Q: What sequence folds into this?
């Protein structure tokens, strides 16, 4: 017993020096004791209060298409699609009405889900608010104006470079290794210390595009410095409460002591409130009579860079490179927030539809197929407003 206690004490000391979570949390993360949809429970979080008067969804439930587009240009049964992509929640909102809400794995409306990188889209919108308010003077501002502790070699790095993943900072997105920089960034209890250690670039800032979560970690710090308050409070005041969130949420932080938001991920909330967020984009930033987000910011973002054959990326959003068949290349294009393990807030302006899908799927798996499935769902919805 004595030896075991010594080992436990040493493990706590070692994780403290390395700025890592407690041994139980670290072991749980390493061994996947919890599914990804519950990983937020391992981390400290800053609370986000619900709206005093939540926006009420009118509910008019309808059946969805029995089949959706899937692999090899074929189709798959809708229930099989949900099962194969390990869906925990699927919500469809059309014309402002909640027309479908399903929790295939036994969750319920009050269940909390992590956003993963869907938070990047939210952070992007908060930057748009700060810009409109003059808290961020210009997207061309150097990042070191707001984060002076960033190494001087990043002197030319701008806010826009972070927003559009053009920083060139070399922190590889390798999710399959527990020893990668991105894994350490996700679990460290001192994110400011992590940033001070950055010293490598893959290209000159602004001269290329590579998807890197570290850009949005820095962007969150820019937002906090520019607004003079934690990103969590700004989210609460400028987005969460004004949009009429029915439930409180949280934003995972590195630790209670440091209190730095994992701003590249990890807003933990209910599916219906992710749907309310999507509605802001359909309604040009408005919630009822309130202009919550700048209308000009709510357009489908311009393409900053091609991530792969299926998606471009712009300002925190994934932009399908091929238009939907119905578009003919001229109608407003769909776009989506995507988080690892299959989290989506999908926006289709033409059919006035938001689809929220929250999952326990693979690391980076079936994103293009899932968007094709969403397009199948949309195509089968009633064409006009009922």
A:
């Amino acid at each position: 017993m004595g030896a075991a206690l010594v080992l436990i004490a040493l493990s706590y000391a070692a994780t403290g020096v390395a700025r890592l979570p407690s041994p139980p949390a670290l072991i749980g993360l390493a061994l996947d004791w919890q599914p990804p949809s519950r990983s937020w429970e391992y981390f400290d979080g800053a609370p986000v209060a619900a709206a005093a008067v939540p926006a009420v969804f009118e509910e008019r439930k309808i059946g969805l298409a029995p089949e959706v587009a899937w692999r090899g240009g074929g189709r798959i049964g809708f229930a099989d699609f949900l099962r194969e992509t390990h869906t925990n929640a699927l919500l469809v909102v059309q014309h402002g009405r909640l027309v479908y809400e399903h929790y295939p794995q036994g969750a319920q409306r009050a269940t909390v889900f992590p956003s993963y990188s869907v938070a990047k889209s939210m952070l992007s919108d908060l930057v748009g608010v700060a810009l409109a308010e003059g808290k961020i003077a210009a997207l061309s501002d150097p990042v070191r104006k707001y984060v002076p502790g960033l190494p001087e070699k990043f002197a030319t790095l701008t806010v826009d470079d972070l927003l559009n993943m053009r920083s060139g900072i070399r922190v590889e997105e390798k999710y399959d290794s527990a020893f990668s920089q991105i894994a350490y960034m996700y679990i460290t209890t001192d994110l400011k210390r992590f940033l001070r250690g950055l010293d490598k670039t893959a290209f000159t800032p602004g001269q290329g595009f590579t998807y890197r979560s570290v850009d949005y970690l820095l962007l969150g710090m820019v937002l906090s410095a520019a607004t003079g308050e934690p990103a969590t409070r700004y989210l609460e005041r400028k987005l969460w409460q004004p949009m009429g969130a029915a439930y409180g949420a949280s934003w995972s932080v590195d630790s209670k002591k440091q209190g730095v938001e994992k701003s590249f991920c990890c807003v933990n909330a209910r599916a219906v409130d992710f749907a309310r967020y999507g509605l802001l984009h359909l309604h040009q930033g408005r919630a009822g009579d309130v202009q919550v987000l700048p209308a000009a910011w709510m357009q489908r973002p311009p393409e900053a860079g091609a991530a792969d054959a299926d998606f471009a990326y712009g300002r925190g959003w994934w932009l399908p490179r091929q238009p939907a068949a119905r578009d003919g290349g001229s109608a407003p294009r769909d776009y989506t927030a995507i988080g690892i393990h299959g989290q989506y807030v999908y926006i289709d302006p033409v059919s006035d539809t938001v689809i929220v899908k929250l999952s326990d799927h693979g690391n980076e798996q079936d994103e293009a197929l899932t968007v094709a499935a969403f397009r199948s769902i949309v195509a089968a919805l009633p064409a006009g407003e009922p």
Remarks:
- The chain is about 30% helix and 15% strand.
- The longest helix spans residues 2-17.
- The two ends are 69 Å apart (CA to CA).
